[in-house]
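Just scan this pair:

***
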Amino acid sequence: MSRIPPLEPRETPWTARPLLRIARRMFGKNLTPLGVQARRPGILWTANLLGLGIEKSGLVSKRLHALVNLRTAQTIGCPF
């Protein structure tokens, strides 16, 4: 459980809703980290664009990128 409660989809700012819709389509549910980041849409967009840029650059393999994301989530105690 995060210390900052995630926003419900109807509470999110309109600028954050497109990313939340995309994530819901990809994963089938609302993700807690995105709901928390939706409180600050600038951070939400920047973090997702950074991850996308790293993935699309081809400098880091997809397998390593996924492993780093998983290990980081484990380190900080992320529930997913």
